[in-house]
Amino acid sequence: MIAAQKTYMARPGQVEDRWLLVDARGQTLGRLAVNIARVLRGKHRPEFTPHLVTGDHVIVVNAAEIVVTGGKLTKKQYDRYSGYPGGRRVRTYAQAVERDPTFPLRHAVRGMLQHNTLGAEMLRRLRIYAGAEHRHEAQQPIPISFGPLGEIIRG
Fold first, then answer.
1. What superfamily does domain 19-69+99-154 belong to in CATH?
2. Packing angle, helices 29-41 and 103-112, rounded to 10
Protein backbone atom coordinates (compact mmCIF):
# COMPACT_ATOMS: atom_id res chain seq x y z
CA MET A 1 0.00 0.00 0.00
CA ILE A 2 1.29 3.47 -0.92
CA ALA A 3 1.29 6.10 1.82
CA ALA A 4 -0.64 9.24 0.92
CA GLN A 5 1.26 12.50 1.11
CA LYS A 6 -0.37 15.13 3.29
CA THR A 7 -0.89 18.68 2.10
CA TYR A 8 0.74 21.32 4.30
CA MET A 9 -1.63 23.89 5.77
CA ALA A 10 -0.28 26.74 7.89
CA ARG A 11 -1.89 27.43 11.25
CA PRO A 12 -2.63 30.85 12.76
CA GLY A 13 0.47 32.29 14.41
CA GLN A 14 2.74 29.89 12.55
CA VAL A 15 3.62 32.25 9.69
CA GLU A 16 6.29 34.88 10.38
CA ASP A 17 5.37 38.49 9.58
CA ARG A 18 7.68 40.37 7.24
CA TRP A 19 7.62 44.03 6.23
CA LEU A 20 8.32 44.94 2.61
CA LEU A 21 8.94 48.41 1.15
CA VAL A 22 7.84 49.20 -2.42
CA ASP A 23 8.74 52.39 -4.31
CA ALA A 24 5.84 53.25 -6.62
CA ARG A 25 7.68 56.00 -8.54
CA GLY A 26 7.07 55.58 -12.29
CA GLN A 27 5.13 52.30 -11.96
CA THR A 28 1.82 51.61 -13.70
CA LEU A 29 -1.21 51.60 -11.39
CA GLY A 30 -2.76 48.26 -12.34
CA ARG A 31 0.47 46.29 -12.61
CA LEU A 32 1.65 47.55 -9.24
CA ALA A 33 -1.74 46.87 -7.63
CA VAL A 34 -1.88 43.26 -8.81
CA ASN A 35 1.62 42.55 -7.48
CA ILE A 36 0.86 44.18 -4.12
CA ALA A 37 -2.40 42.21 -3.83
CA ARG A 38 -0.51 38.96 -4.48
CA VAL A 39 2.01 39.78 -1.72
CA LEU A 40 -0.76 40.79 0.74
CA ARG A 41 -2.58 37.52 0.04
CA GLY A 42 0.63 35.51 0.53
CA LYS A 43 0.68 33.75 -2.85
CA HIS A 44 4.43 34.37 -3.16
CA ARG A 45 5.18 32.17 -0.13
CA PRO A 46 5.50 28.39 -0.10
CA GLU A 47 3.31 28.17 3.02
CA PHE A 48 0.34 29.93 1.34
CA THR A 49 -2.95 28.85 2.86
CA PRO A 50 -6.17 30.14 1.24
CA HIS A 51 -8.20 30.57 4.44
CA LEU A 52 -5.51 32.43 6.45
CA VAL A 53 -3.63 35.70 6.16
CA THR A 54 -0.20 34.41 5.18
CA GLY A 55 0.90 37.59 3.40
CA ASP A 56 3.38 40.25 4.39
CA HIS A 57 2.98 43.86 5.49
CA VAL A 58 3.53 46.19 2.52
CA ILE A 59 4.65 49.82 2.74
CA VAL A 60 4.27 51.81 -0.49
CA VAL A 61 6.10 55.13 -0.84
CA ASN A 62 5.86 57.77 -3.60
CA ALA A 63 2.26 56.84 -4.42
CA ALA A 64 1.69 60.33 -5.84
CA GLU A 65 4.07 59.47 -8.71
CA ILE A 66 2.18 56.43 -10.04
CA VAL A 67 1.64 56.45 -13.80
CA VAL A 68 -1.57 55.65 -15.68
CA THR A 69 -1.55 54.85 -19.39
CA GLY A 70 -3.67 56.14 -22.22
CA GLY A 71 -6.39 58.68 -21.47
CA LYS A 72 -7.13 57.34 -18.00
CA LEU A 73 -6.06 60.61 -16.38
CA THR A 74 -9.29 62.25 -17.56
CA LYS A 75 -11.47 59.30 -18.61
CA LYS A 76 -11.17 56.94 -15.63
CA GLN A 77 -13.94 57.61 -13.12
CA TYR A 78 -14.54 56.70 -9.50
CA ASP A 79 -18.24 56.39 -8.70
CA ARG A 80 -19.99 56.58 -5.31
CA TYR A 81 -23.67 56.45 -4.52
CA SER A 82 -25.19 57.39 -1.16
CA GLY A 83 -28.47 55.59 -1.80
CA TYR A 84 -30.48 58.79 -1.90
CA PRO A 85 -31.93 60.49 -5.00
CA GLY A 86 -29.27 62.74 -6.50
CA GLY A 87 -26.63 61.10 -4.31
CA ARG A 88 -24.32 59.89 -7.09
CA ARG A 89 -20.82 61.37 -7.00
CA VAL A 90 -18.36 60.88 -9.85
CA ARG A 91 -14.68 61.84 -9.76
CA THR A 92 -12.05 61.48 -12.47
CA TYR A 93 -8.65 59.96 -11.73
CA ALA A 94 -7.02 63.42 -11.80
CA GLN A 95 -9.55 64.79 -9.28
CA ALA A 96 -9.11 61.76 -7.02
CA VAL A 97 -5.31 62.11 -7.03
CA GLU A 98 -5.56 65.82 -6.31
CA ARG A 99 -7.77 65.13 -3.29
CA ASP A 100 -5.89 62.05 -1.95
CA PRO A 101 -2.85 60.69 -3.86
CA THR A 102 -3.08 57.32 -2.08
CA PHE A 103 -6.74 56.63 -3.01
CA PRO A 104 -6.36 55.14 -6.53
CA LEU A 105 -3.80 52.55 -5.43
CA ARG A 106 -5.77 51.57 -2.30
CA HIS A 107 -8.96 51.32 -4.39
CA ALA A 108 -7.25 49.15 -7.03
CA VAL A 109 -5.67 46.79 -4.47
CA ARG A 110 -8.93 46.48 -2.54
CA GLY A 111 -10.72 45.44 -5.72
CA MET A 112 -8.19 42.64 -6.24
CA LEU A 113 -8.52 41.14 -2.76
CA GLN A 114 -11.28 38.93 -1.39
CA HIS A 115 -14.46 40.79 -0.50
CA ASN A 116 -14.89 39.42 3.02
CA THR A 117 -13.31 39.77 6.46
CA LEU A 118 -10.17 37.98 5.29
CA GLY A 119 -9.67 40.54 2.51
CA ALA A 120 -10.26 43.39 4.97
CA GLU A 121 -7.58 41.94 7.25
CA MET A 122 -5.17 41.76 4.32
CA LEU A 123 -5.91 45.37 3.37
CA ARG A 124 -5.03 46.47 6.92
CA ARG A 125 -1.47 45.27 6.24
CA LEU A 126 -1.10 47.83 3.43
CA ARG A 127 0.35 51.25 4.23
CA ILE A 128 0.48 53.82 1.44
CA TYR A 129 2.34 57.16 1.60
CA ALA A 130 2.23 59.90 -1.04
CA GLY A 131 5.86 60.92 -0.49
CA ALA A 132 9.15 59.17 0.24
CA GLU A 133 8.81 59.38 4.03
CA HIS A 134 7.18 56.66 6.11
CA ARG A 135 7.04 55.94 9.83
CA HIS A 136 7.83 52.23 9.88
CA GLU A 137 11.64 52.27 10.17
CA ALA A 138 11.42 50.32 13.44
CA GLN A 139 10.04 47.31 11.52
CA GLN A 140 13.15 47.32 9.27
CA PRO A 141 11.28 46.86 5.97
CA ILE A 142 13.03 45.01 3.15
CA PRO A 143 13.09 47.10 -0.06
CA ILE A 144 11.69 45.14 -3.00
CA SER A 145 10.61 45.70 -6.58
CA PHE A 146 8.66 43.59 -9.02
CA GLY A 147 10.07 42.03 -12.17
CA PRO A 148 8.34 41.95 -15.56
CA LEU A 149 6.53 38.71 -14.66
CA GLY A 150 5.60 39.86 -11.15
CA GLU A 151 8.45 38.10 -9.38
CA ILE A 152 9.83 39.79 -6.26
CA ILE A 153 13.31 41.29 -6.59
CA ARG A 154 15.01 42.21 -3.32
CA GLY A 155 17.01 45.37 -2.98
1. Ribosomal protein L13 (3.90.1180.10)
2. 50
